[in-house]
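quick one, 146 residues, struct below
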Amino acid sequence: MNIKEILKWFKKAVPEPTAENACVQIGCHYEEVAEMAEAIGDEFNAIITLANDYKSKGDFAMHFVENLKVKGNATGLKTELLDSLCDQIVTAIGVAHMLGFDIEKALDEVNRSNWSKFENGKPVFDENGKIKKGESYFKPDLSKFI
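---
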């Protein structure tokens, strides 16, 4: 599995992302961070609040994302954000390695599952613009990668 395969899914789902799409995706990212915190027994309520604000495209969230996406004067902030996203990918792979997980095969399985969210080759969105599980969705079986 490589990043290109995951990106292919996003490009099919949202070919021309808007600031609103970016806002929802940041919310989804926070939601996954909260799931990690919950899985290891850490406090996660503040992260869920952030996730929900972004997914519902709250005023603060939309203002922040519009500045990043539209205005050219946010280059320094964009660079810092991109650096952080890269570091999150690297550290996530590191955590998986340290715990003996087969992250590459697990990502393949998650990507297969994500494609099952599509119906008739097209994504289905919820009221906030998040891609939801389609009729043929299957949950990834990650137990074999632990």
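The chain has a mean pLDDT of 90.
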